């Protein structure tokens, strides 16, 4: 599995969250099989969002899609998001 990690700052969390939630069906159609939203502990307008995919090709296609770019543009992101991809190799539940 592959996780796409996105860090960005938003102008208004509620506005961002509405767009994010409305985009959920599209995320699923484009191969997202799991997601998490986190806030920076020292800045509530900085979000760290992860999306899990079955493979890197699907994750890359999602990241480069016009659908995602449009949703991000409408959500009130301030500046350019930082995006990384990570191969999931271990998970330890406690």
Distance between the termini: 21 Å
Radius of gyration of CA atoms, rounded to a whole number: 13 Å
The main sheet orders its strands as 2-3-1-4
Residues in β-strands, percent: 35-45%
What is the residue-averaged pLDDT? 94
Main beta sheet: strand number and arrangement?
4 strands, antiparallel
Q: Count the beta strands.
A: 4
In DSSP terms (H or I, runs of 4 or more residues), the helix count works out at 4
Structural class: alpha+beta
Instruction: Give helix % range.
Output: 25-40%
Outline, from the CA principal axes? globular
Poorly predicted ranges = none
Secondary-structure element string: EHHEEHHE
Task: Describe what this molecule looks like in 3D.
With 94 residues, the protein is an alpha+beta fold. Helices cover 36% and strands 40% of the residues. It has 4 helices and 4 strands. The protein has helices spanning 13-22, 24-29, 56-64, 66-74, and strands at 2-10, 34-40, 43-53, 77-87. It has a 4-stranded antiparallel sheet with strand order 2-3-1-4. A hairpin with a 2-residue loop joins strand 2 (34-40) and strand 3. The longest helix is centred in the N-terminal third of the chain and has 10 residues, at 13-22. The two termini are 21 Å apart.
Briefly say what this structure is.
With 94 residues, this protein is α+β, with helices and mostly antiparallel strands. 36% of the residues lie in helices and 40% in strands.
């Amino acid at each position: 599995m592959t996780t796409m990690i996105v860090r960005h700052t938003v102008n208004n969390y509620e506005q961002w969250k509405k767009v994010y939630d409305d985009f959920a069906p599209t995320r699923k159609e484009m191969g997202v099989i799991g997601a998490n939203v986190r806030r920076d502990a020292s800045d509530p307008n900085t979000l760290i969002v992860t999306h899990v995919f079955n493979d890197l090709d699907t994750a890359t296609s999602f990241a480069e899609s016009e659908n995602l770019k449009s949703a991000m543009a409408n959500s009130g992101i301030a500046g350019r998001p930082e995006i990384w991809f990570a191969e999931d190799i271990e998970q330890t539940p406690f």
